[in-house]
Write a structure and sequence with these properties.
Chain lengths: 224, 113
């Protein structure tokens, strides 16, 4: 076999480099406009849209919020958010299981962000792909509902390693399910010692104000 | 199937480098993949083979160097495990921090020039 013409070239480059570059461009755009952004990640049905709605109520009259919804199909979530009277865009990712930063960047360039202080990006509902890609966010929020099981940080460590905030949702259902909150806390902290953990129930409101206060403080720290 | 997006990125990176080096053909691509990336090598190779057809990387072999999850234990020092666990594999202590295992890099390419 002829192998004379074969040479090895060293590359040593992150496969996600082009995605990282797009994320950097988003970060620059948001910094320039002093906008604080959250990338919300969870399984389908853990409460991302509900948390966004709670944030919209909290920030009503305190500065504009813009929302970008990511789903494989439909604009059901965007319609739900639009009722709150805020600027919202839907990204349908079709064959992709996460929002690509290049796509988010072009959507942000089309939006009027002149009054925006807070950008909420709801990623496609799964714990695998969105964890791989930065959207240039200030904070990554992973939500885990108590009905999903307390082993999720062990099964999907990357999303817990890369998230700044963990929100355990639907805690009003704890009496009805087997879910060890301490087990989740311990595994999440092992994946990321700096993670901030909140336990909330949107149904009863328990824990919500603590979480919303914290997000408001983080936003104020960036935008003044 | 999140391997499809990753296969596309690998192909892009390989074709970019191949072009820069005036390669006729890419025969092999060496990758470093962290266990935390949850990538199934067989699935990745299958998808790559499909999307590389008709490009200079057609038929290129993907070779994967697996990067283990690296954890640092506050009690007994650094150790390596193959899967993520919140307890130290050596001393069973719980003061464990994950410090590596999420690489996703093209290390080198073999090309015909």
């Amino acid at each position: 076999m002829e192998t004379g013409g074969t040479v090895r070239i060293e590359v040593e480059k992150s496969i996600l480099q082009s995605a990282d570059e797009a994320a950097g461009a988003i970060r620059a755009l948001l910094s320039e406009r002093k906008i604080y952004s959250l990338n919300l990640i969870s399984s389908p049905g853990s409460g991302k849209t509900t948390l966004i709605e709670a944030l919209l109520v909290r920030f009503e009259g305190k500065g504009r919020v813009a929302v970008v919804e990511g789903d494989i199909e439909t604009d059901i979530d965007a319609e739900r958010i639009r009722k709150h009277g805020v600027q919202v865009r839907q990204i349908n990712t079709r064959s992709s299981c996460h929002i690509q930063p290049s796509r988010l960047l072009s959507v942000l360039r089309e939006m009027d962000l002149s009054q925006t202080r807070l950008l909420l990006v709801e990623n496609v509902g799964n714990l695998v792909c969105p964890a791989e890609i930065s959207l240039g966010e200030d904070a990554r929020v992973v939500l885990l509902s108590v009905t999903e099981g307390d082993e999720k940080p062990l099964k999907y460590p990357l999303v817990f390693k890369t998230s700044d905030i963990l929100v355990v949702t639907k805690t009003d259902l704890l009496p009805h399910v087997t879910f060890d909150v301490e087990r989740v806390r311990r595994a999440a902290r092992a994946a990321n010692p700096a993670v901030e953990i909140f336990e909330v129930s949107a149904a009863t409101g328990k824990g919500m104000s603590v979480l919303l206060d914290r997000i408001e403080a983080l936003l104020a720290a960036k935008t003044g | 199937m999140h391997e499809l997006g990753i296969a596309n990125e690998i192909l892009d990176a390989a074709l970019f480098e191949a072009d820069r080096h005036a390669a006729k053909k890419v025969t092999s691509i060496l990758l470093r993949v962290g266990v935390l990336r949850a990538i199934e090598p067989g699935n990745l190779s299958f998808l790559f083979e499909h999307i590389a057809r008709g490009t200079p990387a057609e038929g290129a072999r993907l070779e994967i160097v697996e990067e283990p999850v690296r954890v640092e234990c506050a009690a007994c020092g650094v150790s390596e495990v193959r899967t993520f666990t919140p307890d130290c594999p050596r001393c069973k202590g719980s003061g464990v921090t994950v410090t590596g295992g999420d690489s996703l890099s093209v290390l080198s390419l073999d090309i015909d020039v």
